[in-house]
Specification:
alpha+beta; Aminopeptidase; Alpha-Beta Plaits; 2 domains; 18 strands; binds zinc ion
Amino acid sequence: MRKIFFCLILLVTLIPVIAFGSDHSSLIKKNSKSLVKLYKYLHSHPELSRQEKKTSKKMAVELEKAGFEVTENIGGYGVVGVYKNGDGPVVMVRTDMDALPIKEETGLPYASKVKAVDEKDKKVSVMHACGHDMHMTVFIGTARLLMKLNNQWKGTLVMVAQPSEENIGGAKAMIEDGLFKRFPHPDYALALHVMPMPSVMVSYKEGYMFAGSSSVDITVRGIGGHGAYPHGSKDPIVLSASMIEAFQTIISRETDSKEPAVITVGSIHGGTARNIIPEEVKMALTIRAYPDKLLDTLVKSVKRVAEGTAIASGFPKDRMPVFTEVVRCPSVYNDPKLTRRIVKAFKKNVPQLFKSDRIIASEDFAHYRFVEPKFPTVIFGIGVYKMETFVEAQKKGTFPPAMHNPKFGPDDVKTTIKTGVNAMSTALFELLGK
Ligand SMILES: [Zn+2]
Ligand SMILES: [Zn+2]
């Protein structure tokens, strides 16, 4: 990430700002005040994954007001808006809607004070720390703009407001609820994500953009006993320590060193007292890689190493570790041909373009590229920070807060909305233009 930011600073300093496309800019400007208001409303009213009741209603109302035919409650709180504007391609635009269980520390006047009960019945603070509030604002801004200029394009626009991106369930739930059977099947699908970069900037990446990820739980089972007599038991804590070390050799010795991959044991719990060898230890892992085949191999290797280490340590057959893959998200692969086409259009109309590196985080937009019959998908990035914010952070040898940080928050809301609506509508006019 560090390398990216140095390049960003350089780019921002060296490349002059090109004017926004004059066709759209006056309409974007006209809408700016109400979109900033919408953004602030969404930011201060975040909802957790699977709880996006009010947010989805807001999206439905806004799409309806803009002139779309709206259907609610697809795959949970999913919303679909369709506008048929004559013969032409079908293009889907997707926004996500959910927020995170994080206590906001931005100090913004419209910061979230919302608390909610999560799926484990725990009361948590809620914050739009991944910028999905900005995605929704740009989504509505784009919908309004395309409707106002509907004499300049032909085809069908399918606006999809998707719930539960953060827990990787929303896209799949909408697909399973007939998103591509009940509504026009797209020829192309587009999305965007905020990035911690200058607000005039749009980033793109051909091919792999976000990594695939697998969430794995392992219960390491042992035979409990007295801490003074380990030979009379099977110690799952010592076995867990061996496993964790062995998992890292999967990366260093079993994967191509040119291909980045990560295995992180993010949580480990076991034992109640210093002199008791417990019956079990619970571990939670995240496994990440880009090619889906490599991710699949890594998941299988983790299972093999967990079992193999238990066998090598003399654990009985009925005390083998229990391996559960909780959820898997494939990698986001931006269709190269479609990316090149959109970037060509961006070059005429977007102030600053940045060719980004791959990102090891995941995005459940990934699921749409596996829908049959297949259609090309592209997600691109938009910046959220004023240039001064970057310079200030640089002076301190750091960078502005990134997503999922309690201090993450666009400090240039107006420009970010303008950049986002301009970029998304530029891409849409390229695909739908007469
Ligand atoms: Zn996120
Ligand atoms: Zn996100």
